[in-house]
Amino acid sequence: MRKRIEDYNKTLPILEVYRCVQSEGSRIGRPTIAVRTTGCTHRCYFGEGGWCDSWYTSIHPEKGIFTFNDIIKIYDENPHVKEMMLTGGSPTMHPALINEITHFAHERNIIITIETEGSAFVETDYPINLLSISPKFSNSVPVEGAVTPAGKIVDEKFIKIHNRKRLNTEAIKQMIKFHSDYHYKPVWDGTKGNLKEIEDYRIELDIPKTKTFIMPAGDNREQLIKMYPIVFNMCAEHGYNMTGRDHIIAFNQERMV
Ligand code: SF4
Q: Three-state secondary structure along the chain?
């Protein structure tokens, strides 16, 4: 028997619940409800691209503040929304919550997209509709001496934590096999080395280019505007799908958009 959430009034590791428009990947443009969990297996640092854009859920995780009833409430208030973006942090750290969400989504005909870096395999009573898989490559590894958003200095232990579950290929394969559908959504930093890692991994996992959505690196409007034409041209040349990060173009670094 898979674990479920019994107390709908209990505070869960959920930091944000809000209505928005999906702006990444194969379900782009659809109104959705974002449910952001807190806690992550990784500590991504992209050099000039900066720290993880949701560092408050990963590197310095804040405590959850929402209950399961809060998820129900926002769907009751927005009956036209039939999608959910389950994001983090790393939502797969919370299997009971994910499983409970699949029951709720099944009852209400809601399509779930789960964003995952692929660190863990999670089974659910109803398969998740779409896995949005963004494995973290070597350009995500923090460098010793870098300073985190809250002022911590990166040391060897910090780097080890990041690498412990990075590129957990077995878990990614199991996720793809168990759940309904997936896309591969790697972030590209514009370098040849990173593109090679993205392509090698695509081939290793036997992922078709039609299911591959390359996303520009950058957590602010200025960086993305610089990266967009580079990613457009590369995707046109190599036959990948391009996905932007249009919520950042629209709202820059605002949270809950
Ligand atoms: S896996 Fe995602 S949420 Fe976790 S640190 Fe990396 S970018 Fe942030």
A: CCCCCCCCCCCCCEEEEEEEECCCHHHCCCEEEEEEECCCCCCCECHHHCECCCHHHCCCCCCCCCCHHHHHHHHHHCCCCCEEEEECCCHHHCHHHHHHHHHHHHHHCCEEEEEECCCCCCCCCCCCCEEEECCCCHHHCCCCCCECCCCCECCHHHHHHHHHCCCCHHHHHHHHHHCCEEEECCEECCCHHHHHHHHHHHHHCCCCHHHEEEEECCCCHHHHHHHHHHHHHHHHHHCCEECCCHHHHHHCCCCCC
> 3 lies in a domain?
no
- 43 alpha carbon – ligand 1 mean position (Å): 6
Domain count, the chain: 1
Q: Which atom of ligand 1 is nearest to the CA of 43?
A: 5
Is 134 among the domain residues? yes
Assess if residue 202 is contained within a domain: yes
CATH number of the domain to which 48 belongs: 3.20.20.70
- In the chain, what percentage of residues exceed pLDDT 90? 95
Q: The whole model's pTM is what?
A: 0.96
- The Å distance, Cα 40 to ligand 1 centre, comes to 6
**Nearest alpha carbon, ligand 1 atom 8:** 52
| Tens digit of each residue's pLDDT (9 = 90 or more) over 154-196 | 999 999 999 999 999 999 999 999 999 999 999 999 999 999 9
Atom 2, ligand 1: which residue's CA is nearest? 89
Give the structural domain span for 98: 14-251
Is residue 201 included in any domain, yes or no?
A: yes
Closest ligand 1 atom to residue 117 Cα is: 1
Pocket of ligand 1 (CB under 6 A): 40, 42-44, 52, 54, 58, 88-90, 117, 136
* Local mean pLDDT, 10-residue blocks, the chain (257 residues): 95 98 96 98 90 94 98 98 97 98 98 97 98 96 96 97 96 98 96 98 98 94 95 98 95 91
